[in-house]
Amino acid sequence: MPPQEPVGAAARRALTLLADRSSEFTDLRALADIALTRGRERQRLRGVLLVKAPSSIRFEALAPFGPPILLVAIHEGRVTAYNAVKNEAHVGPANAETVAKVLGLPLNPEDLVAALTGRVAPPPDLRSAELLPPDDAGPSLSLVSVGGRQRVWLDLETGTVRQLEIFGSPFNALIKYRRNGTGVLTGFDLEAAQSYVTGSITYQNLVEGGGIEEERFTVAVPKGAKTQSIR
What we know:
Layout lengths: L8 H16 L2 E12 L2 E12 L3 E6 L8 E6 L2 E6 L4 E6 L2 H8 L5 H9 L8 E10 L2 E8 L2 E7 L6 E7 L5 E7 L5 E8 L4 E12 L17 E4 L2
Parallel strand pairs: 6-14
Antiparallel strand pairs: 1-2, 1-13, 2-3, 3-4, 4-5, 5-6, 7-8, 8-9, 9-10, 10-11, 11-12, 12-13
């Protein structure tokens, strides 16, 4: 375990900004266009995305006509993926490995919520925090915790996250956020070269804080569907 290091005044102010921005987030809903490339495999999906703090996610991939063709939900420590075309469901514990198998993004639910919403909370097991000099993307915080290391580029006036870099197991990833002229999140680009993963998500009709019922994240697998465990 890394030793606890003292945090300077500038880094502490930046941490407070991050914590304040993260604590403001309750939920998000949007129409999402997802493009992912993993090795030679390419995937494009368009659907409805629901996100609720701290770790609930639901994505329904839409068919041109008719009901959703794919439904993925992460809630209360479980992940469920139902493919309507194959009438198959995959269920298992929600962690970075299982989320990677379902969504192609090896992040635990809390980190995935942070990535999808651009709201990065300081880790609860923080060991050190250092405010780094600005580069092309602006100033950034280097954060080291028991769980790993992150670098967060942020606006030091508002706490708005511009970029997020995640280091370590199971992969390294750089996420660059896109926002409109008023600062509203419009999507992000992702690059995880070590895992041969690149991609982007573009949001439309995004609504934050509109309220989403807990039951929206519970998936009832249809009777007769073939169900397999995700390990």
